[in-house]
Amino acid sequence: MKQSSNVPAFLSKLWTLVEETHTNEFITWSQNGQSFLVLDEQRFAKEILPKYFKHNNMASFVRQLNMYGFRKVVHIDSGIIKQERDGPVEFQHPYFKQGQDDLLENIKRKVSSSKPEENKIRQEDLTKIITSAQKVQIKQETIESRLSELKSENESLWKEVSELRAKHAQQQQVIRKIVQFIVTLVQNNQLVSLKRKRPLLLNTNGAQKKNLFQHIVKEPTDNHHHKVIFNIFYINVSN
Q1: CA dist., res. 62 & res. 234, Å (int)
Q2: By the 8 A CB rule, do 90 and 35 touch?
């Protein structure tokens, strides 16, 4: 290989590794010379890498290949992607070809497209972000407080409705009892009146009986009973 100052040391060592025959059991050119193969990763990392790159880490070696634009060749066997453990690992680069070491000058190490200044967050932008976050937090706390108030008001309303329903049911029960009491009282008074008027009914004609029944129904009850009913109704309803 012709030495060139434009070729990085990593590429020079890699070319030497692939070209030398005594390393062919570990690393060698493919049949068409358009790529190279690492035949036994474990032995290559243990026996070869320390001699050329001062480390025995296969992952670091692959990472360096990627930094120079090398791509791993994936083989598909019967529609199934062949895994690395099933055979050699193959790498390819358009300018890394057998017998064409003059192309190595065209292989360049990848450089990050973004400038360091672009990756830095300006203090002004950072302040704006913090201020916006604080405003959002304040709004969120306000919303949570309002939701808590609404929840409390809702619970109070439901409690009041429940109390009103209970009071309404109680009043309905009281009114029902009063009506039953009045009906019973009226019926008892009518029976008493009928008993008193019965001897007279035996000696009267049909027209007189009709007028007498009308008189009994219209006859007011005792004032004492009216007072008792009114007092009971007033006490229960007012409660």
Answers
A1: 99
A2: yes
Report the C-alpha gap between 54 and 35 in whole angstroms: 24
pTM reported for the whole predicted model = 0.44
CB neighbours of 14 closer than 8 A, spacing ≥ 6?
A: 65, 96
- Is the separation of the CB atoms in 63 and 45 below 8 Å? no
How far is residue 12's CA from residue 70's CA, in Å, rounded to a whole number? 14
Q: Which of 118, 69, 57, 109 is nearest to 93 (CA)?
A: 69
Region for residue 69 given its phi and psi (left: phi exceeds 0; alpha: psi -120 to 50; beta: otherwise): left
pLDDT digits (tens, 9 = 90+) for 138-147: 988 899 888 9
Cα(215)–Cα(139) distance, integer angstroms = 80
CA angle 30, 34, 39 (to 5 degrees): 30
Distance, C-alpha 58 to centroid of its chain: 42
Tens digit of pLDDT for each residue in 104-136? 999 988 876 555 555 566 777 778 888 888 889
